[in-house]
Design brief:
Layout: E1 10-13, H1 19-24, E2 28-31, H2 32-38, H3 43-51, H4 60-71, E3 76-82, H5 88-97, E4 102-106, H6 113-127, H7 131-157, H8 163-171, H9 180-194, E5 203-209, H10 217-223, E6 226-231, H11 232-237, H12 246-252, H13 259-273, E7 277-283, H14 292-298, E8 303-308, H15 316-330
Parallel strand pairs: 1-2, 1-3, 3-4, 5-6, 5-7, 7-8
Helix pairs in contact: 2-4, 3-4, 6-12, 7-8, 7-9
Length: about 325
């Protein structure tokens, strides 16, 4: 099996999509979210969007993605119209207006296999992915995902991986940083190093919700006596469930299918990992914040809900709330 000789260009996307198709078509996949928050000065992407007329009262993730697309050279952007952000349709329209090729893709809310199969087939044809190339990519990407599953298991069973490391490895699975082999090899090296560590102490916590826009969250949690051993959405980006084919794989992926699909997975992992408390992260101006009501009534461990807005360091008020939450879980004063 060989890697593609030369990339046809970069295909960006607004949330996790069937990345196998992008690789199989000879393009380099790029999760625009990771470029946004991974930049040394991510606020400039938000500033660019606001200069171009985006309102202040809009999720900064959407503004950041727009700014990234305007600054980076991408061949096209796959915009997930159903199963992610309610603002994606407007984003797709303005990108198209600005001359950017957009490719719509949807995860059916009712998890209908036939509908998802049609969406995947449409995307495959739009990108020009061949069946033979897809089969080869699926073999390579399955091996890479097995390494990520091992990192995730080590986080809670051996307690030798930090919550932040778990977050970074799993969130990067959405595009494998554009190179499956390099990502898998890097994961192998990390696993070897992590296995030499002693087990970490700290109250076992779960993190649910979209990946955080704020910096320093995991380091602070571990600095005050917690250890995040479960990152819900990031784990889903790594497609943790075995499946017979690509359609089944993305039906088992919980994130796009609403709160009830996610709840089954969350409650299962709470029990399996012995999680004592949950940190629920919500993004300012995001419709998903409403899901906090259901989560609080259906999850049996204490929940702390925190909100982020801009890509900046953790604020002092949120630090105090996290510290008090962990003290409460330890049985100390609130």
């Amino acid at each position: 099996m060989t890697e593609p000789q030369k990339s046809r260009g970069i295909i960006g996307f607004t949330t996790t999509v069937p990345v196998e198709l992008i690789f199989a078509a000879g393009y380099e996949p790029c999760d625009l979210n990771n470029i946004f928050v991974g930049d040394p000065q991510p606020g400039r992407f938000v500033d660019r969007a606001e200069r171009d007329g985006f309102p202040k009262s809009m999720c900064n993730w959407i503004k950041g993605i727009y700014g990234v697309v305007m600054e980076k050279q991408v061949e096209a952007v796959i915009t997930v119209m159903e199963g992610d952000c309610s603002n994606t349709q407007a984003l797709a329209e303005i990108l198209r207006y600005r001359g950017v090729r957009t490719i719509p893709f949807s995860f059916p809310y009712d998890r209908d296999r036939e509908v998802l199969s049609r969406e995947i087939e449409k995307l495959k044809k739009e990108l020009g992915a061949e069946e033979g190339a897809l089969a080869e990519v699926e073999t390579r990407i399955a091996a890479a995902r097995s390494r990520l599953s091992e990192i995730d298991t080590m986080t809670w069973s051996e307690r030798n991986v930090t919550g932040g490391e778990n977050h970074l490895w799993l969130v990067g699975a959405s595009d494998m940083l554009g190179d499956i082999k390099k990502y898998a090899d890097g994961a192998d090296e990390f696993i070897s190093r992590a296995r030499t560590r002693e087990s970490m102490e700290g109250i076992p916590l779960g993190y649910i919700g979209v990946p955080p826009i704020i910096e320093g969250l995991y380091d602070f949690i571990e600095g005050v006596g917690g250890h995040v051993i479960y990152n819900e959405t990031q784990r889903q980006f790594a497609l943790p469930c075995e499946a017979a084919d690509i359609v089944e794989r993305y039906l088992l992926y919980t994130y796009p299918y609403g709160i009830f699909a996610r709840l089954e997975d969350i409650n299962k992992e709470i029990g399996l990992r012995g999680i004592k408390g949950i940190i629920h992260y919500v993004q300012a101006f995001c419709f998903r914040a409403i899901e906090d009501v259901i989560l609080r009534e259906t999850i049996d461990v204490p929940i702390l809900t925190i909100e982020g807005d801009m890509p900046k360091t953790l604020d002092s008020r949120t630090k105090m709330r996290i510290e008090a939450f962990i003290e409460m879980l330890e049985g100390g004063p609130c």
